[in-house]
Design goal:
Layout lengths: L3 H17 L8 H83 L2 H28 L2 H20 L19 H11 L7 H14 L2 H14 L1
Helix pairs in contact: 1-2, 5-7
InterPro entries: HMG_box_dom_sf
Keywords: Coiled coil
Protein name: HMG box domain-containing protein
Length: 231
């Protein structure tokens, strides 16, 4: 089915033919050939216009894209220039806020009565006691050979840190050590002396730890008492 555009083209061709040929010659071959040429000429002209239009639109899109890219680049450059200043300002503001919050807490604490302070002090003491208890349990159950290996590793690290002029790392130390050996250490020594375990301490540590956990409280107390007796 012919489109509206085809009808318009045909109408334009008819008008042009009417202008060139009189009514008596409109059925001739010359008339028909001329009509074809006119129609083809209209199509070629339209194609040329479309090409020009596409070029104009393409140039327009390209120009708009380049303008957008320039704006983005300018904005990015502006942000990069402000980054350090903004970060410094943000960091100073954050420190100031922390200081102000800490100062407010100090003032609130000072405004509390002795009875109110006692409530928080009790909670703090309970939390500290729980942490100390957990630390003692850990030191009671840790394999001393693993502690030695860890300290050897720290020694090697400290050699490099000394060469680099850096501060030495502290070794792993039992804060509850009172001159005697921890109960678990005595137990481990007993395991090796009885040849229950032998060889690599790392490979045996898990096995020894599992044996220690199976001991009753009375058996563990035996090692604790032996430690206190020999200390």
């Amino acid at each position: 089915m012919p489109s509206i555009e085809d009808d318009i083209k045909e109408e334009e061709s008819e008008k042009e033919l009417s202008r060139i040929f009189p009514l008596s010659k409109r059925g001739s071959r010359e008339y028909q050939e001329t009509g074809k040429c006119i129609g083809e000429g209209i199509r070629i002209e339209e194609d040329h216009q479309n090409v020009n239009f596409d070029k104009k639109e393409g140039n327009k899109c390209r120009a708009e894209k380049e303008a957008t890219c320039r704006k983005v680049e300018e904005k990015r450059s502006g942000n990069q220039g402000k980054t350090e200043t903004e970060n410094d300002t943000s960091g100073k503001l954050e420190k100031k806020q922390v200081f102000e919050a800490f100062k407010n807490l100090q003032n609130q604490w000072k405004s509390l009565s002795e009875e109110e302070k006692a409530i928080y002090e009790k909670k703090a003491d309970e939390a500290n006691a729980e942490r100390i208890k957990q630390a003692k349990e850990w030191w009671d159950n840790v394999d001393p050979e693993l502690v030695k290996l860890e300290n050897l590793r720290i020694d090697r690290i400290n050699v490099k840190r000394k060469e680099q002029g850096l501060k030495r790392e502290g070794k792993v130390k039992n804060p509850f050590f009172n001159g005697g050996k921890p109960a678990y250490a005595a137990f481990v020594k007993d395991m090796y002396s009885q040849n229950i375990v032998s060889g690599n301490p790392i490979e045996n540590s898990k096995h020894v730890s599992e044996i220690w956990k199976t001991l009753s409280q009375q058996e563990k107390d035996f090692y604790r008492q032996s430690v206190s007796t020999n200390s």
